[in-house]
Amino acid sequence: MRCLFSVIQAIVAFFILTGGALAEDSRSVNVYGVPGLITVPSARMDKAGTIGLRTGVSEPYLHGALGLQIASPLYIGIRQTARTKDITGDADRLYPGIDLRLRLTEEGLLMPAAVLGLQSAFGHKRTASEYLAFSKRYEDFDFTAGLAWGRLGSAAHISNPLKILGSHFGKDRSPDNKTPNDIQDWFTGRNIGAFGGIEYFTPLDGLSLKAEWGADRYIAEKSEGYSPAAPWSIGLSFNPASWINLGLAIGGGETIIGNLSLKETPEKWPWRKAEKTEQTPLRHYRAGASLPPQMELSAAAEGIYLYRAAGDQDKVSVRLELSPDRSYPQQTGRAVRHISNHAGKTVEEISLTPTYLGLRGPSLNFNRRDLEQAFAFNTGSPQEIWHGASFGEDKKTNWQKSLHEYLAEEPVLPDFRLMLDHDASLSEEDSGFLFRTSLIGEVIEKISTHFHAGAGARLNIADNLDHLNEFRLLPAMPIRSDVDLFASRRIALDRLWAGWMTSLNTDLHLSLTAGYLEEMYSGVGGEILYRPFGKTFAIGADAWQTFRRDPLTDLNMGLYGNRVLSGHINAWYEFPDTDITLQARIGRYLAEDIGGTIELSRNFANGSKLSGFITATDSSDFDIFGGATNLYSGIKISLPLGSAPIFPDGSASRISAVPLGRDTGQALDAPIKLYEATEQLSLRHISRRWTEISD
Questions:
Q1: Percent helix, strand and coil across the chain, each rounded to 5?
Q2: The pLDDT value given to residue 659
């Protein structure tokens, strides 16, 4: 019963979070939670950015999955499969897995869509399978056919064609081997199976009929006394709304198969970053004299903080301290209105240098007349401003202290935000669905140009981690396996730290941080980042001397005697003309294990962020069934709450679907990461958000 309840709980939570908003894509999914017919996959993909929560039942299994369509050609999903005698009873065995799908070709006039899929690419071998699926639509009919290795191809219709590449691909693959499925198991097996099916879209909107012939012969289950139904299935799929899909089918004339899918895109998320406010109009005339004090004070009244440098009659140079809660172009558009209004008659060029907590980007130089045409007379456009603007290397300028700092009646409030954290794990072999929900209040305050400090408090709201270590063997010095002890304290200190950041030039950045760095660790460390402006790559390194916090002390502030040195070499690649970033890092993790991480992330204009990652190290975590894995993987979703009435700017709901209580592959969660801190200063951010200069 707990297994079914956990799946229902996750679905209800997702529905509440999305608020029932509509997604544009409404393709049906199979019982495993990926686009498909009934049990077999198709070559269809969701819209880029789609978040999907799915559950399906097909005797003797119950499946639950959370998936992200990170980009148009790539899907990443975390799935938990439970074997049950009765869907209302407890699970007899759990088979977690990470599913991947990669689009090979898009559908054309004659060309079918093609997808390469890996079911349980990393996870338990019981559900592991690789497949090639092809789909082609003709009028109201959508045809699917494919070849599968592993579970979905266990009918063994033909010899594995990859054996010609080497004997490795012809080796036997046991569905119940205790080691997890990984790269060396992909596309192996003596034989493979073929599957196919058809979907007919009826005249009734949202209703389709499906029929398929699968190649899963339930080999492992037969050895346990289970008698599977015939491999054919027929059923229907119904979309009462574009964000929900219901499926019902009968398999082999005797088995009922059902599924429920909820999905949404972050673009439809109702609570964006900070709401737009009315901006100061740019005057239709030029004042007679330059009035820098009035410029600074009027900008400060709108939350725009400017610092000027000595200029000449034709140019004014200003430093803009950025807020992380609005785009750089939007803040720039508001800043230049105040600058132009008080720049006098003779100034023709405005130079603006962006900074954030001591970091700086290239100066952005404007033709004042372009700004006037666009903002005062409505005869120009953001595109024309862009063509007339230029970037320049900012030299170390002696910026004057802004007058509003002397005259402000009240000090500027620190940057405060709330974070609603929900950690959920579908990737456990011994505990089923685990979750933890916390509310974190955190503040960052700028002390001087390069120094800043932060603090955070955590309210643990709810969790089901009481029995996390009832069967697991807790190590003498846990890394994160005692998360249940941290979750049991109602209120705790989350962070308390001080930091220093600077830019040696606009491409090279440094940071140092010390204090209580995250919930489980204190310490000191630093980071260096080389991120050349206008390029699609960045490289860097970080190192941290950490001390483990004691969850049995007041506010978790006590420290164990042990210390660990961890650090990584990092690299990033930005896919051109997208907000998608690939990060790779290699180094030493908190358990002193050596390995690497690959992460793919996608940012959205409204402040949402999706990411999926996988970490492999030279150490393993063990479960109660004797299995071991050196892989740690998951997906993360961040949804902004800045425009919700009760939340301050910068607040967010963060959902992480990652294994809980793992010790290997764990990296420090630093308070500020240089790559994220410099994103607003990047050409990608500026160019993709440029139209917001008029907001």
A1: 15, 45, 40
A2: 87
* Beta strands at 508-516 and 521-530: parallel, antiparallel or unpaired: antiparallel
Give CA 473 to chain center in angstroms.
31
And the tokens for 383? Answer: 């595109």
Q: Would you give the DSSP letter of residue 165?
A: G
- What does the block give as tokens for 125? 């071998």
**CB burial readout 602-618, b (16+ within 10 A) else e:** bbbebbbbbbbbbbbbe
Average pLDDT (635-659) is 87
Tens of pLDDT, residues 283-302: 888 877 777 778 888 888 88
Q: Is the pLDDT of residue 4 over 80?
A: no
Q: Is the pLDDT of residue 23 over 60?
A: no
Measure Cα distances from 158 to 3, 138, 186, 665 in Å: 37, 28, 17, 39
Contact predicate 523/552, CB 8 Å: no
Q: What is the C-alpha to C-alpha distance for residues 550 and 557, in angstroms, rounded to an integer?
A: 7
- Dmax (CA) of the chain: 93
User: For residues 207 and 28, what is the distance between their CA atoms, to the nearest angstrom?
Assistant: 10
- The answer to whether 557 touches 535, Cβ cutoff 8 Å, is no
State pLDDT tens for residues 190-242: 999 999 999 999 999 999 999 999 999 999 999 888 999 999 999 999 999 88
Of the pLDDT bands very low, low, confident and very high (cuts 50, 70, 90), residue 121 is very high
DSSP 463-514: E--TTTTSSS---SS-SSTTHHHHHHSSEEEEEEEEEEEEEEETTEEEEEEE
Looking up tokens 């007058």 gives 403
Q: Residue written as tokens 């599968």?
A: 148
Torsion 332-333-334-335 (CA) sign: positive
Residue type, 114: A
- The 10 Å CB-count burial string (b at 16+, else e) for 89-107 is eebebbbbbbbbbebeeeb
DSSP 170: G
Instruction: Using alpha carbons only, give the angle 446, 452, 453 rounded to the nearest 5 degrees.
Output: 110
Check residues 10 and 489 and name the one with the higher pLDDT.
489
Question: Which positions ≥6 away from 139 have C-beta within 8 Å?
Answer: none
The rounded mean pLDDT for the chain is: 87
| Helical residues (DSSP H) of 172-309, grouped into ranges | 219-222, 292-301
Q: pLDDT class for 178, splitting at 50, 70, 90?
A: confident
